[in-house]
Design brief:
This protein is mostly beta strands. It is built from three helices and nine strands, in the order E-E-E-E-E-H-E-E-E-H-E-H. Strands 1-5-4-3-2-6-7-8 form an eight-stranded antiparallel beta barrel.
Length: 152
């Protein structure tokens, strides 16, 4: 499956009060390459190999399903840190906010991403008041870059 990913990314200034009421997924991912981005991911009980094209707010993304065994085999070959996080899916108007709460060594980092059907909608998006600084163009907050270096 492939699609064009149009998203904006923000640090989170404070958690929404009712966070635990929203659906949560457990994600674990490792990177086989960061340029280009090739990762393996476990998302609850599903496993994928993902290739992401170049881009900042807009990029091509290809997801290929894996078996649990293939995922485990490839995860052992991952470079750098394996990222583990809880992802909360929070409805916000016509969109869904994906709020990632990272495990150590990245905790207490909180990142929110919002995906859009068009670039115009992405540019017009008004974030909720609990969002902090926008980091869409800051490569330091891409999971691929984070896998290479734990925060200071």
């Amino acid at each position: 499956m492939n699609h064009q990913e149009i998203e904006r990314k923000f640090k989170v200034a404070r958690l929404p009060e009712d966070l635990e009421q929203y659906p949560r997924r457990r994600i674990e991912q490792g990177y086989l390459s960061t340029a280009p981005v090739v990762r393996v991911r476990r998302d609850n009980g599903e496993y994928y190999l993902t290739y992401k094209g170049a881009g900042v707010m807009v990029k091509e993304e290809y997801n290929l399903p894996l078996t649990r065994e293939a995922y485990r085999h490839l995860l052992e070959k991952a470079d750098g840190l394996v990222i583990r996080k809880d992802r909360f899916c929070i409805p916000f108007g016509a969109y869904t906010i994906e709020l990632d709460r990272f495990d150590p060594p990245f905790a207490p980092l909180l990142i929110a991403e919002v995906e859009f059907p068009t670039e115009a909608e992405a540019l017009a998006f008004q974030p909720p008041d609990w969002f902090g600084e926008e980091v869409t163009g800051d490569r330091a907050y891409s999971n691929a870059q984070m896998s290479r270096k734990a925060p200071e």
